[in-house]
Queue: 2 jobs
Job 1
Amino acid sequence: MLNSEHMGIGMTSQRTRDRLITRLSEQGIRSVEVLEVIRSTPRHLFIEEALAHRAYEDSALPIGQNQTISQPYIVALMTEVLLSQGPLDSVLEIGTGCGYQTAVLAQLVKRVNTMERIRSLQEGAEQRLRSLGLRNIEYRHGDGYVGWRNRAPFDGIILTAAPREVPKMLLEQLAPGGRLVLPVGEDGQQSLQVISKSASGFTSESLMEVRFVPLQSGVMA
Ligand code: SAH
């Protein structure tokens, strides 16, 4: 459970949140666990106050530094796909951003390792997630292209920014049976892919067209 003093009511009323959950399940999200976590996660605390009244709309919103918080449907879908083979112990997330996807994951898996290349976003997310009482998250300011080798292997890896091609080093950091969920492709023509690692190699499946900010190399202070 999240720290309840932050839950907030009023313009972010339970009814508004319930409407979002109805919409997500109408769009095909089936996992009750994922829907419940999204219902109880205060998305309005992850965006600036001026936009907080739009927090429970199913849309992406700006979070500063030219980045966006993902659309709830995409967060729900990627989380559902990541967890579709059962519960996971360890997940690597690349692109912490404001930390919303991180918060959803942390309530569903044992341990989340999250990386962000822009320091101010990373620090903001860390502060927010700590004050929500989430303790099973390890943060790192760094370039996600190379993954997090000394915490690997991971049962799941999720990217919230799109590389042009699947980064090889991330495939190497997947545990046997693990899966990588990511948007891949050039700006304007990205697809959401799931890559599974088995004893005989990798299989990949393309789910839908998506629009994400690009994965960029190097770190920013
Ligand atoms: N899940 C986030 C999405 C933020 S947008 C949220 O809900 O807020 C994607 C994020 O990926 C941005 O914050 C961007 O700075 C970060 N990013 C882009 N390239 C990266 C890289 N190579 N390593 C780590 N983070 C990266």
Job 2
Amino acid sequence: MEENTHHLINREGSELPRPSRPLMIVVSAPSGCGKSTLCDRLVDEFPKIISSVSCTTRAPRGEEKDGEHYFFLSKKEFKERIKQGEFLEWAKVHGNYYGTLEDTVLYAMEEGNHVLLDIDVQGAKQLRESLVRLDPRHPIRRGFTDIFISPPSMEELEKRLRGRGTDEEKVILKRLENAAGEMESAKEYSFQIINDDLEKAYHELKTVILSGLGLA
Ligand code: ADP
Ligand code: 5GP
């Protein structure tokens, strides 16, 4: 396959027709909805879709590695990068700072990839607002696709957060408290997916992306 194109080719090797542009796929969901499960599967299936590595001031969780899951920064370092205008978007979520470096996204797109951003509702809102100021031909504006993933119910969300077994009780409670507010933002997204049955939700996610490429 020639370099620097935006083909979507799955691990089995079946190549899809050449899409016209790289996508910047923004996915938001209340914590515990299954967003990482869905996004990890997507990047596993399609090597040309890569996850944007965000910066955060929160502590690493479980096996998380610096530079792989997040760039773990001190609050001082994070604020310095805000001051330097390095973030495409940033927000304070559950008491910690999170942000996407503009370079991370542009570099991935220039390399011929579709880039997947797992960001919160505030970050997605900032991006939507800043898009209108960009040239219509700017890759970020052309490729912007936003998707909101909802849980089937708040009870199921609580069950998943506890079942994941990675967060302390007070963290779980904070995430549940924030979830209700985040759900209010679902309508601002172009696409909404309810993650009830995992297979069905994954199929819907793929359909949205393929349709963004004019392939479905
Ligand atoms: P998020 O990234 O949104 O915080 P995770 O992907 O870590 O959420 O999922 C939270 C928990 O819910 C995990 O234990 C995951 O295996 C489980 N989970 C994800 N999707 C489903 C689903 N459709 N049905 C049941 N459990 C699910
Ligand atoms: P977690 O701590 O569970 O990894 O992430 C908590 C929340 O922060 C999730 O809703 C996730 O989408 C969001 N998040 C992760 N990275 C970024 C980012 O770069 N920018 C913004 N705005 N939110 C992020």
